[in-house]
Design a protein that fits this description.
Chain lengths: ~150, ~650
Amino acid sequence: MEARTIVEGLLATQPLAVLSTCGESGPYASLIAIGHDGAAVVYFATSRSTRKWANLTVEPRVSLMLDDRSNRPEDFHRAVGATAVGVASACEGEAADKARDALLRAHPHLAGFTEAPSAVLVAVRVHDWYVVSRFQSVDRFCPKGDS
Amino acid sequence: MSITVLDLREAALRPVDEVGGKARSLGVLLEAGIEVPDGVVVCVDAFDEHLAEGGLREAIAMELARVDLAELRTEEYWDVSRRLRSLVAGRPTDDRLRTIVGDAISGITGALVVRSSAPHEDGDEHSYAGLHDTVVGVEGLDDVVRAVLSVWGSVYSERSLAALGAAGVDPSGLSMAVVIQPLAAGERSGVTFTRGPVDPDAGTIEAVWGLGEGLVSGLVEPDRWMMRRDGDGVEAHAGAERHVRFAYAAGGAQLLPLDTELRDRAPLEDEEVERVWAACLAAEDLFGRAQDCEWTWVDRPVLTQARPVTVRRLPESADPTPLPLARLAELAGYIDDELLPAMWSEASALSVVGLERLADHKLVGEARRRAEAVLHWREVYRSTLIPFAGGARAFGALWAEVMPGADPFGFVELLVRTGDDYALHEQLLAEVGLPAAPRPVSRVDRDAEERRFLEAARQAGRADAAEALAIGRASWRVRDDDNLYLLRIEREAGRALREIERRLEADAGEAASIAGPSARERLQAAAAMLRDTENDSLDSNRPAAPAADPGVRARQMLGHPAGPGVGSGPARVVLRAEEMADLVSGEVLVVDALEPETAALAVGAAGIVERRGGMLVHGAIVAREHGIPCVTGIADATSRIRPGETVTVDGFLGIVILEDV
């Protein structure tokens, strides 16, 4: 399957992703609920008191992991995963509305959370996806088109 | 998904999962020719559809995951219920529901009654009667839709959450159908048990003048007939003191005085007793097991409900539902005119006794008198003053009902004391020798908010809104002040204890003054009694913290958002009330249960964390009145948070973060 199709398929079917940030005390992985705008932008929300937010204020470069594993042996030939590499920034004003809409399309029950004044909506602008299939097959997919 | 509305007769043939237990049994009764008000049922699918929209079911499950239902205090059920009900009622209904229900009820004339018909109710051994709402006297499609939403929300009523919590059932997957019927408001009503719990050969009929609400709520004492099941009919009749009745009026059921000529008459004549009994036995024959039937008399007995007698009624002590307004109104007068003045004068009488001048044996007598006074007034506090705090909750429920979509705790702004009323509280604090806090800051235009509420209530046909507001305010005021009255009496017991201790100590030294060993023993016994009284305080059932795993520390703790805002600072962990004085401005107060006597000292805190949950605990009240970020319901807060460590309180999301972990 083509890398682009795999990424689009994962974005359409996986409501959660793993976010990796890096701060003063080193790398840190977090499970997050995501929304998206094509393959180029992934959105999530966090409270401003979290470690991931503290890390982002120090180092905005992040990585995201989406996959469709089922935790069974056949995952090794069947499962696909996609690692995004990009830059995170807080959304304000209209951009925040757009981010919220995208996130709530996938997670309507998070409406209260995203509206809390202490929550922040974050956009990850993805410059590259690394798509893994059949255990060791890896492709790079650039959503902007210049791979 | 579909939205199905069926005639009750059709409901007789459908599974309980689709129509709920009540609709099904009413349908079966109708089909069998037993007199029941004919109506329709809005099936479970409509409720499921409502919850599927906008992720409501998951939002409810997330809210429920914040708490351990089995561990909540009675008052917290109300809090959780309020949040869940506001989620359900705050989302507009599907337009299709309005159209389908409108068509279905177009043939029914006059006022309606909208009842819960839950698949889980009246069924297995975990079920209790009356967990969910019935809305009486509904007129017009707007009101019907509002009532349907309200009955849907009552799947999470405080009573339901308490019962399910005790049974270990997770309410997040529950559903609800709704029955809409013409209101059968007879002039006599009652409840029949076709088989008694003790004597399997006997049943009972209880009857009152007016609506059955009077009997079910316990506000109207019923006449009672013991019935023989072997065909011999009435075995005994116990008449009641008949003073009041419930009648249907605009906005619902109202408690009214009973006409004088009816006070000497039993609600049922002998022949009518037999007819009620026969109708209820017919229901028992139909269902093949003993029944608990509610009925009303409209020219003949009309059954409004039948369920197996095995379905229990929740014991009063476990029922977190606020008392009805009529009862609260009675209490308000009694508390203001009799209780509080009596507490004050008792404390004053105790305070003028010169304990130092009393002979030893008289001091022992005084000690006993004081210990008894403390125990007596604590019991009054538990049995009367705490239930009266339900007045604020009853107002909150009405607020949420007439202002759907508003902040479910916005009602607090209308209850908070202002102006002269607050001055009375300050005066009381001064008389008790406690510090006063800066006056509460109101974030809304109270008068405008009050007008908005009263107008919304008027449009919803709630004629009792002004009374509910007045009772809510009285309840809030008593909640502020009652501890201070009790504190005065407790201090008088403490004064006697100190005097005894002084004498015992002096006697042990050089200047022996106590007349002999037996007098000394009596003083020691009196001191022990006073200490026991002191230790048996009101909040002594605090759960012990589980043994901590030394390798595990909390980083972020989930509680209830109870005061909006975010605040950070070093933790001030307060274990005893007297440590409140150590709180420095800018610290985060971490407390098990903030006591009203020292709540004023919390005003400078950067944030408040309280172990007790809810929006109406004192920590939450002070926070809300003074704009302090606050999170309540953090289990073991005082042991999981260490003194001095940096804590962030997020009062929007209801989380507490330990920054150094």
